[in-house]
Amino acid sequence: MELKITTFDGKDAGSVTLSDEIFGLVPRRDLIQRCVVWQLAKRQRGTHKTKDRSEIWRTGKKLYAQKGTGGARHGSARVNLFRGGGRSFGPVVRSHAIDLPKKVRALALRHALSAKAKDGGIVIVDQASMAEGKTKALREQFGKLGFVSALIIDGAQVDENFALAARNIPNIDVLPIQGINVYDILRRRTLVLTRAAVDALEARFK
Question: What sign does the dihedral 173-176-179-180 (CA atoms) show?
Fold first, then answer.
């Protein structure tokens, strides 16, 4: 697959041939879905908590005699049957993370890249850098290129001025190549890769 390389000024900067092993697969929705679930499950904080009967501050004395009252048999007032009592089987502090094999994660990333390439949502730029970290100037460049919702992936190091200029623009994410992931690729309309990012991806999956 061959794509044109452009600059953020809209000028032509040549072309690049993308590997079919990374960008030319037939997308599998099941792999992509498994990876997204794995990512979102790790993000859950798991700090929800309710009190059980052992944590309720209330007397444990038997309410009334076992027999002779005509009512049900009750002991502690801390049980879940009473208002203010502990909750049975309530949520506890835990991790929601699930396991996903490393090879499945890598394959899901390739399928997500292939899905974006199939939809025509990949743009290759020469480099992502700016002389000054001015949001207004970068927003004008994005407007000319039609970037409304975009994930921009650079090489191992992201240009500091570019990151500063882009961080106040809504629906624009800037990540180094180490941070590329399936969920962020899918949640943005356009995937913008620099020449360094393409080289790093091909070296990673060789």
Answer: positive
**pTM for this structure?**
0.83
* φ, ψ at 38 (rounded to 5°): -60, -45
Class for the domain spanning 2-43+97-204: alpha beta
Point out which residues pair with 109 in neighbouring strands.
none
Domain extents for the chain?
Answer: 2-43+97-204, 50-90
Spatial separation of the C-alpha atoms in residues 191 and 116, rounded to whole Å: 7
What are the beta bridge partners of residue 125?
A: 6, 194
Helix (H) or strand (E) segment spanning residue 5: strand 2-6
CA distances from 72 to 63, 67, 75, 79, 127 (A): 11, 9, 10, 14, 76
pLDDT (tens digit per residue) in 114-165: 999 999 999 999 989 888 889 999 999 999 898 999 999 998 999 999 999 9
